[in-house]
Amino acid sequence: MAGIYIHIPFCKKACHYCNFHFSTSNDGIESMIMAIEKEILLREEIHNQEISTIYFGGGTPSIIPINLLTRLLKSIHSKYNVSSNAEITLEANPDDITQERSIEWKSIGINRFSIGIQSFIESDLQWMNRAHNSIQSKKSIEIIQSAGFKNFSIDLIYGTPGQTIEQWNDNLDIAFGFNIPHLSCYALTVEEGTALHKMIANNKKQHVDSDLQSVFFETLMKRARQAGYSHYEISNFAKPTMESKHNTAYWEGIPYWGFGPSAHSFDGNKRRWNISHNIDYIKSVENNIVPFEEETLDEVDHLNEYIMTSLRRKNGIEKSVIIERWGSKFLNQIDNEIAPFVNSGKVENSQTHYLLKDEGKFFADGIAAALFELKKN
Known about the structure:
Layout: E1 2-8, H1 29-42, E2 50-58, H2 66-79, E3 81-92, H3 99-107, E4 112-118, H4 122-128, H5 134-146, E5 152-158, H6 165-177, E6 182-187, H7 195-201, H8 210-226, E7 230-233, E8 236-238, H9 245-251, E9 256-259, E10 264-266, E11 270-274, H10 278-286, E12 292-296, H11 299-311, E13 317-318, H12 319-326, H13 328-343, E14 347-349, E15 353-356, H14 358-361, H15 364-371
Parallel strand pairs: 1-2, 1-9, 2-3, 3-4, 4-5, 5-6
Antiparallel strand pairs: 6-8, 7-8, 10-11, 11-12, 13-15, 14-15
Helix pairs in contact: 1-2, 1-10, 6-8, 11-15, 12-13
């Protein structure tokens, strides 16, 4: 079993907080799709593994004409063994979603959406420099539901400067009112190199208040639980059976194969990533060369990956897995390093698992980073 990720590096406009690889110039879309199609045909390392998920990310895949998306899907099906019930996800922005396009997407096999709502509040969307407005946020969900799609997710961002707890509750009221099957909710982060980072550095935007973000996160966890969602990963909430199969496979260390500029792949031992430059990527693939770098994970790398992905999930870190794969020596090290977080009430140390308590979930990355100090000794 494996997954496929396709990176579509085009957007209508640049969101201030985004650090993904994309271009706001739509020149060369067809050339890019042809190059990705060729990369799919050039790559040989997937062999005969069944493909259980296909994910179109970016960028904004929903701006790609339907005929070009069709070409990519046909190339994948012609080259690889795609499961008959594969989850096929398209990331889409609200302003791209129309009744006609939703029917077209369904006709070519798209069966799941990840909709970049980010907020239902107009002031939030303007602050983020989003291409859509609050009316389109709501309308896009209505269209997807009326077209018969039952499996979809929306993204929400919380903790933007100036956002109030009342506004965050309004966002959640609307999401729960639509009975959204899956929510991905992220605290706003300020990444170096983004427009937001520069604006904050130049005092043109307010700094992010992490203490207030933690309050928003606590509100999210409490209300999502009351609304019947499983908090199955730090940033992800799902109604029963509606977890993202693609992302879950990633967190479980199942191989995935990325196509397109900046796309990542993982075969169980090696990570590889394509160059993040549209023109160079196209030129290289046209010359039958897939331009990438790679690294081979060692024993500690694998352990750190397991710690990071497992700690963020509802099942936590399994002690039996640590012993089986890395030995009791590493379990003892984890036990020592995680003790301060257990004592402070952020982590539960049970007989079989290390689990984040609600009080520790907002600090998941920091707790994982502390455990990354483990060494071979």
